[in-house]
Amino acid sequence: MADFTYRVLGPDGTLQKGTQEAASAAELAAQLQKRGAMVLGITPAGRGVGLLALELGGTALRRGELTEATRELASLLAAGQDMDRALRLMTEEAPNKRVGAVLGRVRDSVRDGVALAAALQREPKSFPRLFIGLVRAGEAGGDLAGTLERLAEQLERSRRLTATVQSAMVYPAILLLAAIGSIVLLLTQVLPQFVPLFAENGLALPASTAFLLELGHAVSAYGLYALLAMAAAGLGLHQALQRPGIRLVWDRLMLRLPLTGGIAREILATRFARTLGMLLINGVALLPALGIVEELLGNKAAQIAVHAAAESAKTGQGMSRALGAAGVFPTRLVHLLRLGEETAQLGPLSLRAADLFEERTRLALQRLVALLVPAITIFMGTVVAGIVSSLMLAMLSLNNVAQ
To answer: I want to staple 137 with a disulfide (CB 3.0 to 4.6 A). Which of 150, 278, 282, 372 is the partner?
Structure first.
């Protein structure tokens, strides 16, 4: 059992909050729903209150925080609250002044007669263009609460995909660092212990041991400089990538790498298809939707492909042919988009394609980790075995002299 802090809308529409013990958040949510309450947020006690709890630092809502805020606003609107009251409740329950200031400014704009989309547009650091575009479409279509709920699901899916990529790389990265640390320790701390023994007996070190010893000396003497040089190279690369021409070459290279290139293309396909599908089913026209998607992809080669697709669609030739000619996105995505254009179901088929490629991304990451972990383990074992063999050879040399 654990303590959870909850926020709900009671049967009478009032905002209620408190702390209750339960086996899990899901169990507490079920209990609250049985009482006729609409759950707005449940968090473990001590981790912040409500769905708008923000991390310290920064000046904008982060992706996960924006997702939860969107879902809370959708719930308040679906419960019959007007926009002003919903934003007031969210502002009053903000966990800190910074968050309250952002929400307060949005509410002030709405109270001045500005539409929600226009109010959000005044906070570009917190609300991206995709978010604003979908809100504007929801306002125009009269289904703002439903649009916000679908938008929250889209943001949550995007966050999960990002988390999947990051978490998949954690274990191989830790294993690689452990391998490098072990090798450096052997070279700089263990091997030098044998030098005095050979010096006392007037013996020369075996060739392999002497080589490893020199390597250890080089690591000790120049290791820090090597790290600084790598950091400087990384900074230089970051600055170089700000130039469009270099960034284009780099992004194309990233899509053609043997192991990770395919995964990068799957991720791009997922992001493209889900964003386009969400925009289209919420009433955004194809050309404006492609313009928003182009900004959100983050890969210069893919952005050029989408721009070409938009130009093709503008002339009435459809976008799928131009996307296929670019060779950036997977062929299966191009086929599904072409089918969507032919059947006038481009939005639903885009979302279906997004689900497909999201699952393919997860499977590809699992296969990549399954390859990386044994490869790093074998590499570490081989290097350590070589160092240990060199140590054993040195010990055998000393033993022969003693006999």
So the answer is: 282
